[in-house]
């Protein structure tokens, strides 16, 4: 029997006080997030923000040639749609569901009105946005200076942090698209991690067998992103 789905499964919603949450609660809508669903397209007007719970959303940029690379991922730690409260109504990147699950959706008018009140929600969203900017910057550095194997370790660890189990439903083609590299490069990197006993890959499933092994092989980028998120939200306590 599955447990009831609640907004508290998203860390930002869980951090709001009872009074602040009660203001948002009537406007929150639980929605399914199927794999591959496009939430935002470049230049399109954004109508909702999404607070993922069991899903993960990939923010990525697609070039004119069709090549793409992920700039950041958003899971239960955050919100998709920061442009809505940062002064814009659209974004130059796409937002696509990377891991199927669910999310709580909030219409843009309610989000902007609550943000503009200048209370706890505003402070929380601004802190999270800084952490998201750190992730984007570190992803750019990682993709430029570190090996595909290190990039894969970073991506796997960040994904694991957002999921309750160690089994990821993910094809190598999708991982290659996220990292902006050739599929063969991901195959080689995953093969080395599997030989080392860190992961198991079969039929579109990646199982993590040894997290400590991944952490020993990853570059410093994973630690920078995790440390900044923890620092910015260190004093945030879940609502009882």
TrEMBL record:
GO terms for molecular function: DNA binding; DNA-binding transcription factor activity. Residues 12-112 form the Cyclic nucleotide-binding domain. The keyword DNA-binding applies. PROSITE patterns: CNMP_BINDING_3, HTH_CRP_2. Coiled coil: none annotated. Signal peptide: none annotated. Keywords: DNA-binding, Transcription, Transcription regulation. The keyword Transcription regulation applies. Residues 146-212 form the HTH crp-type domain. InterPro entries: cNMP-bd_dom, cNMP-bd_dom_sf, Env_Response_Regulators, HTH_CRP, RmlC-like_jellyroll, WH-like_DNA-bd_sf, WH_DNA-bd_sf. GO terms for cellular component: cytosol. PANTHER family: CRP FAMILY TRANSCRIPTIONAL REGULATORY PROTEIN, HTH-TYPE TRANSCRIPTIONAL REGULATOR ARCR. This is Crp/Fnr family transcriptional regulator. It comes from Rhodoferax fermentans. The lineage of its organism: Bacteria, Pseudomonadati, Pseudomonadota, Betaproteobacteria, Burkholderiales.
């Amino acid at each position: 029997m599955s447990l009831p789905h609640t907004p508290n499964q998203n860390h930002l919603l869980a951090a709001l006080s009872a009074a602040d949450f009660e203001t948002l609660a009537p406007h929150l809508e639980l929605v399914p997030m199927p794999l591959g669903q496009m939430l935002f397209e470049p230049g399109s007007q954004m109508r909702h923000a999404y607070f993922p719970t069991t899903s993960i959303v990939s923010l990525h940029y697609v070039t004119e040639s069709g090549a793409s690379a992920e700039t950041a991922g958003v899971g239960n730690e955050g919100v998709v749609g920061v442009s809505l409260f940062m002064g814009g109504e659209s974004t130059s990147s796409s937002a696509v569901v990377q891991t199927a699950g669910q999310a709580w959706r909030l219409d843009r008018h309610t989000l902007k009105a609550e943000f503009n009140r200048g209370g706890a929600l505003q402070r929380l969203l601004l802190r999270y946005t800084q952490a998201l900017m750190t992730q984007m910057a570190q992803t750019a550095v990682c993709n430029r200076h570190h090996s595909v194997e290190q990039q894969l370790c970073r991506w796997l660890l960040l994904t694991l942090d957002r999921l309750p189990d160690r089994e990821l439903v993910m094809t190598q083609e999708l991982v290659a698209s996220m990292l902006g590299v050739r599929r063969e490069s991901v195959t080689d990197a995953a093969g080395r991690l599997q030989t080392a006993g860190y992961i198991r890959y079969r039929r579109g499933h990646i199982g993590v067998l040894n997290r400590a092994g991944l952490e020993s092989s990853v570059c410093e980028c994973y630690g920078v992103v995790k440390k900044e998120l923890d620092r910015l939200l260190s004093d945030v306590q879940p609502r009882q």
